[in-house]
Amino acid sequence: MAAIDLTEKTFAQTIQESGIVLVDFWADWCGPCKMFAPVFETASEQHPDVVFAKVDTETERGLASAAQITSIPTLMAFRDGILVFSQPGALPAAALDDLIAQVKGLDMEAVKKDVAAQQAAQQ
User: Fold this and answer.
1) Which end of the chain is more exposed for a tag (fewer CB within 10 A), N or C?
2) Which CATH architecture has domain 4-122?
3) Measured between alpha carbons, how far is residue 55 from residues 59, 60, 115, 120 in Å?
4) Domain Thioredoxin, which positions (predicted)?
């Protein structure tokens, strides 16, 4: 399955409703982004149960700013609407496959409890 393009209008709904979502923040002028693109595309074909999405940081500056993107490419992984991974830099194929396996293997009940505890501590 090919990666979908996300915008400010579609971002929140996509990560909330889609289970596992990997988001690649990129720009056309970025060399490492261009090197990572085929790795991301291949992974999207190998994992049809995962939504692969891209955000062009040049056309979606507000979204990139809201996501606090300071370096590209940046890869974010969401599961059940919760950010579970965020890291700048292009990943090799094996590392991306490992990341996907880790996200799929998360105990989401434990993650949700941790998130709730963190939110309670911030209040």
Assistant:
1) C
2) 3-Layer(aba) Sandwich (3.40)
3) 8, 7, 25, 31
4) 1-105
Give phi and psi for 75, each to the nearest 5.
-110, 130
3-state secondary structure the chain: CCCEECCCCCHHHHHHHCCEEEEEEECCCCHHHHHHHHHHHHHHHHCCCCEEEEEECCCCHHHHHHCCCCCCCEEEEEECCEEEEEEECCCCHHHHHHHHHHHHCCCHHHHHHHHHHHHHHHC
Mean pLDDT of 25-41: 96
d(CA 14, CA 7): 10
pLDDT computed for residue 119 by the predictor: 87
**In the chain, where the domains are located:** 4-122
